[in-house]
Amino acid sequence: MRLVTASLATLLLTGCGGVAAAPRSATPLTSTTPIPVPESSPVAPAADVRIPTDPAKLAAALKQTTPRLHAALDAWDKSSEPSKQLQLLALHQQRAYRTMARSSKLATATIARLPQALRAEARDSVTAVSKLLSMAHPITAAQRGKLKFVDPLPAKRLRGHMVAAEKRFGVDWQVLAAIILVETKFGRITSSSSTGAQGPMQFMPGTWKAYGMGGDVHDARDAIMAAANYLKATGAPRDYRKAIWHYNHDTRYVDAVLAHAAAIERDPEVYYAYYNWQVFVLSSKGDVRMTGPGK
Question: Which regions form coiled coils (predicted)?
Answer without folding.
Answer: none
